[in-house]
Each structure stands twice: as structure tokens, then as C-alpha cells.
Amino acid sequence: MTAGIGSPVALVTGAGGGIGSAVARRLARSGMRVTVADLDAVSGAAVADEIGGRFVRLDVTRPDDNRAAVAETISAYGRLDVAVLNAGVAGRCGLHDFTPERYRETMAVDLDGAVYGIEACLPAFRAQGSGSIIVVSSLAGLSASPDIFYATAKHALIGLVRSAAMLLAADGIRVNALCPGLVDTPIITSFRQALVDAGYLIASPALIAEAVEHILSDSRTGQAWVAQAGQAVAPIGYPTVTVATSG
């Protein structure tokens, strides 16, 4: 499908490679006009040229950069319908080599970047009374992981999504989390073969992009959708917790 005037508009962060570039390609093929946002201008611009989209250089750790990416998207296309907040990094330290600086670097990209991305999109979405935000978390956001601060950030994203979805539903804005399992991206390059040898299934970025399209076609909000190789994408079920009262 060819995107044209009036087609939906998507902003994808971290879209210069890996999952982000696969998502940008998938959405463009579905007929969306896409802004490719990435810190790497070379790879980001290449993806934008490939799909006929627009490139915006974005450091997700900077609130003003996020607002500028949204503003440039709206300036180019006249609207914004979808934001896929995908940018992320592996943990920069653990408990054995902890420094505040490395810890903050992880949290700044993996958590703060999504917070700033949501904040930047809200004025446009509220003005038009609709919008869909997909925050890319991880299975590490639903379970224990040796990459402790990466997992901490990804767990926090789930809480962010569920709470934001509750608060923004009245504005017509849907917020969901995507939790991929192992994906064939540069993050796992150094230990990919060990995973294969151990029998783990590794998903292609294209499979995760397909999951994004599935979420966009679903009307639910506040969900954490699991996407793994060999399984259909589906939201996890949360237990119901009742707040105790004295009455």
C-alpha cells in the first residue's frame, strides 16, 4: 500500500536499525507515513530514504529533542497518529561494576526516553482526540533478568504504560507495551550462538514489527503484549488486587 496525503502518520524512535527499522518498514508498507527518529543520522536517514519517510535526529534522553521530533513530524505531515517508543540500550552496569553514571545512562535511555516521548506526543493526541502509543519493553520487564538495571527500567515501563493508559483513556489515547523475547538484533550479538546452542528460539525483528501492527489493530489499552518466536502475540493476564479498607 502506498502512503499519501491523509494516510496515518507514525513516529518510530530508535528506528535506525534492529526492531525500530523493521517497525518503520512494516508501517510504511501498511500505508502509513513514517518519521524515522534515531541518534545515528547515517543509519536513520538510510532507513527513511528506503521507505520514503522522514528522518529526525533524536536523543531520547533530552525532552526538547522529543518535542522537536513530534513538531517536525506534524510540520511535515500535518498530524501524528502513532508513536512507537522503541529506543533502548542494554544495561551499562550491574551490581558488580555499579557506578551512578552508568546506572543513569541505562535509565535515561530505557525509561526516561519513553516518559519524554509520551509527554511530547500528548498535546497533539489530545488536540485530535485520538492516538496510539506503543512502548517497547521486554520479557525482562515481566521476569527476573541478570541484566538488572535493564530489567528494572523495563519493569518500570510496564507500570508507566498501565497507569498512563488509565489516565489517558478519556482523551481517546491508547497506550500499550510490547514485550519481545529474544530478538536477533545487535544487543545479543556477543552471546547469540550460545543462545542457539542452548536451544533458545530467536525472533526476527520483522516478527516484532508484525506484533506492533497487531497491537495497533486491537482496541485494547493498558496491555503488556508478549511477542516471541513460535508463539502468537498476546497480552498477559494480570491478577486483580483489591485495596484493603477498614470497612
UniProtKB/TrEMBL annotation:
Its EC number is 1.1.1.-. Belongs to the short-chain dehydrogenases/reductases (SDR) family. SUPFAM superfamilies: NAD(P)-binding Rossmann-fold domains. CDD domains: SDR_c. This is SDR family NAD(P)-dependent oxidoreductase. Keywords: Oxidoreductase. It comes from the Bacteria. One of its GO terms (molecular function) is oxidoreductase activity.
